[in-house]
Amino acid sequence: MAPLPNAELVQNSLQLYRYLLRCCRQLPEENIRQHYRHAIRQSFKVHADEDNPERIQQIIKRAIEDADWVMNK
To answer: What mean pLDDT comes out for the span 36-64?
Structure first.
């Protein structure tokens, strides 16, 4: 399963959050979608106070890589 296009356009945390939730919609089973939606929301809350732009870009890059892995699994 291919990831959504335009991952390279994700520039901030809100765009990442929306991108990842859209990726979840493509997962085949409802219980899997619920699991990853919950994980995305939890990660968003954990990193909500992050203010270092360099660290935010690292998180965005890693989250997109992880989403690609999940979508191709």
So the answer is: 93
